[in-house]
Amino acid sequence: MSEDHVETLRRFYEANRNELYTYALALTRSREAAEDAIHTAFGKMLKTWSLPRELRPYVFRCVRNAAIDEHRARARESLHDSPFAIDESRNNGHDPELQHQLADLLLTLSDDERESIMLKIYSGMTFHEIAATRSVSINTAASWYRRGLEKLRVLMRGENE
Amino acid sequence: MKDLERELKAIPAASPDARHERRMDRLFLESEWRRVWYRRPIPLWQGAAACLLAVVFGYLYGGKQDVAPSTPVETTRTVYIVPATPEFQRAVQGAVQSHPAPAERGNYVIEVSPSTLGRESRTGDSI
Asked: Do A45 and A59 meet the contact criterion of CB atoms below 8 Å apart?
C-alpha cells in the first residue's frame, strides 16, 4: 500500500460517488446490493499494493465486477430499484412524465446498450474509458451506445404516436 | 440524437444515502489506520529484542526436536519353496504361458513378510 494509495482512492470516491452509485444501481437494480458492491470493490482496491495509471476505468471495472457478483447472489430477490430519482414536485424545465417514460424505456434496452448509455451520460465517460472498463474495443463501445440511443428514439416515437 | 441525450442527462440519478457514506468513511479510516500501523517506525531495541526472542525460542524448541536413533525392527519372514510344476505355473502365470519350456522349470520361492506381502519371486534351476 503506497503512502497516497488510500488518499487517491478516497479522493476518487468523493469525486465520483454519485456516478459509481448510479452505475452499480443500474447493474444490480437494488440499492442495498449497489452499496455493498461499492463497499466490497473499494475494500479490495484498498488492499492492493499499486493502482493503475488510468484509475477511472479500473475503479468502474472493479465496481462492475462486484455489482455483478452481488446481483448473482440476490438472483432470487425481486430487484426493481431504479437508478433514477425523478422528483415530480421539482420542475427543472423538463417534463417528469417524459423522464419517467425515458427511464422505463432505458431499462428495456440490452445490458450492453444500457450500460454504455449509463457510463457515457451519467458517469461522463469517454468511449475510450467505456471500452477500457468493459474490456472491448472503442468501436464496440461506441456502437452499443449509438444503437441504444437509436432504439430509445424509435421506442419513444412509437409510444408517442 | 442530441435532444435525446439532453433529455437523458436531465433525468436526476439516484444518490447514495447517509448510512452508505458513513460506511465508506469508516472503510477509508480503517485503511488509513492500517497503513499507519504497518508503516510505523520500529525502535532498534524492539527489533533486536524480537530477533533475540526468535533465537532463544528456536534454540529451546529445536533442542527438543533431536531425532531418536532408530532401532532395528524385527520382522517375521516366512519362505515357501514350491516346485514349479506346470499346474502351479499355470495358476501363477495364467493362460499367457500355459506351456512353459522345460528349461524354465525350477522352484518358486515365495517370501511372506510385512514389506513383501503380495509379491512373489521365482528362481530358476539354481535352487
From this structure: yes
